[in-house]
Design brief:
Layout lengths: L9 H17 L4 H8 L3 H13 L3 E2 L7 E2 L1 H24 L4 H11 L5 H16 L4 H14 L3 H16 L1
Antiparallel strand pairs: 1-2
Amino acid sequence: MVQPGESLSASLEDYIEAIFHIEDQKHAARAKDIADRLQVSSASVTGALRLLAEKELINYAPYDIITLTSKGREAAQDVVYRHEMLRNFFVKILAVEETEAEAAACKMEHGVSTVILERMTQFIEFLATCPRGGHKWIEEVEAFCEQGKDLKRCEQCLRQCIKELQK
């Protein structure tokens, strides 16, 4: 990751994330690939690449291929992890539509703290292991979001959970 006390702006995180994904697909990135992926100008890409190279996060020379350094790969993997965790939480736990979840994850990945991300991970693990949680619980959350509060449905669900726990 980036040195302690040294953080990347949201914009630079977007660049290393883009390079990470392009490298994963093509083994190396070009400035045009990055501009296309992020929908920014070539001048913006050049400026960002220079900053990332100064921070020793990428290997960069004008008109050449761009690759992440080991330090850059570590920083990019951190951004990708935050992005994927948030998107999965929104889709799988909160039942948010994929496109909206993706857009929100892109915005939030830059500001979410390690503590919050850890708690989200623990919450997902809890749901997966708790007898009252799991897939059925997530379906009930989705029904609650779509249909609103239904005390009768909650009572039925609770009775079903108790029956299953007694077995």
